[in-house]
Amino acid sequence: MTPPRSPVNAPDEAVWTAPGRVNLIGEHTDYNEGWVLPFALPLGVTARATYRDDDVLRATSSEWPDAIEVSLTNVKPGDATGWAAYVVGVAWSLRRAGLRVGGADVHLSGDLPVGAGLSSSAAVECSVAGALAELYRCELPASELVRLCHEAENEFVGVPSGVLDQSASVLCRAGCALFLDARTLDSRQVPLALTEQGLTFLVIDTRAPHHLVEGEYAARRAQCQQAAAVLGVPALRDIEDLEAALAALPDEVLRRRVRHVVTENARVLQAVAELESGSQVSRIGPLLTASHTSLRDDMQVSCVELDLAVKTALIAGAHGARMTGGGFGGSAIALVDQAHAVGVGSEIVAAFDQAGMREPHVFAAVPSEGARSREVIG
User: Are 317 and 58 in contact (CB under 8 A)?
Assistant: First the structure.
């Protein structure tokens, strides 16, 4: 049975935009119930949802040529794959939660690059969820929108990601980073006084695509869970004595994973303390670089393109740099003086050219607003 429209004055169309994100610091800590510090990008995905009087979800995209059409009546995981799974999965998650969401034509557009490690998947999920909820006049608080989109990615799409991406896409505010406790989901905004201090973040999209569904990300999560079980703690966040924990683990791979998560959590807390104390933002630069070293050597999720981007940025004068996102490709960030941003970007492009790699896309990242409804025009 098709869910009725409720109330009767629901709109014929709803449009939501959700941003991508970069993670300032705190990688592979969210699924270990630790801390993260992302901020939203000015780039994002827009979902335009138009009402239809059946129970069919039809989705099109400016990025992908093929339309998908699925009956929502008995939809289940596996009924949609690829990019379509993120759209259909959201409708499935909303309905499973008891929200009276029915058929819609959904069109996706935007300027957020796919496969760049900037969380285009969460931007799709959050924009679609917001648009469908508005179209059917469902009450959907921000925290619940985050939860349902995260559920769609984990249970429908099959990516065992943490809650970082959806939280960043929904909860971030302009000019701030989001300090999120992935266990309690408590969060607060941490101001980033970049412009006032003559600083900016460069995002370096290496154009080395990452594919989290293909197993490496899931393997890292499983290794962390295995280590927690061996150590008898609920999650790696709960380790208090790192040296004792490392001594108790017989496996070198597990020791590496534990060392990264414990030290990365400490770096997040230190970065937040620095930013909230009113210190120069540049003081967090060494923490970013240490994070990359740990991700490269202990979590083993970097790649030659990311390493080259970070190394070149540092040589060119960045205060700090690191890969951002799940890894295995994607993007890096560098904290640079605004006056030298163009020069640093040029050095990175030249280094990639000399190495025979694809030209990276380098742009300045402005901490921006989270997901929001947009006025329907035309």
Answer: no
| Predicted structure pTM score | 0.90
Annotated catalytic residues are 165
Q: Using omega within 30 degrees of 0 as the cis cutoff, is the peptide bond preceding 77 cis?
A: no
3-state secondary structure of 44: strand
Is residue 5 very low, low, confident or very high in pLDDT (cuts 50, 70, 90)?
low
Q: Look at residue 162 in the predicted model and tell me its pLDDT.
A: 83
Say how far apart CA 20 and CA 60 lie, in whole Å: 20
Torsion of CA 335, 338, 342, 344, to 10 degrees: -30
The number of C-alpha atoms within 13 Å of 230 and in the hemisphere containing its C-beta is 17
Q: Helix 142-151 to helix 164-171 angle, to the nearest 10 degrees?
A: 150
* CATH T-level assignment (fold) for domain 13-188+369-374: Ribosomal Protein S5; domain 2 (3.30.230)
Q: What single DSSP character describes residue 301?
A: -
CA pair distance 287, 266, nearest whole angstrom: 10
CA distances from 159 to 88, 121, 149, 220, 274 (A): 15, 10, 12, 12, 33
Which CATH number does the domain 192-365 belong to among 3.30.160.140, 3.30.70.890, 3.30.70.20, 3.30.70.1140?
A: 3.30.70.890
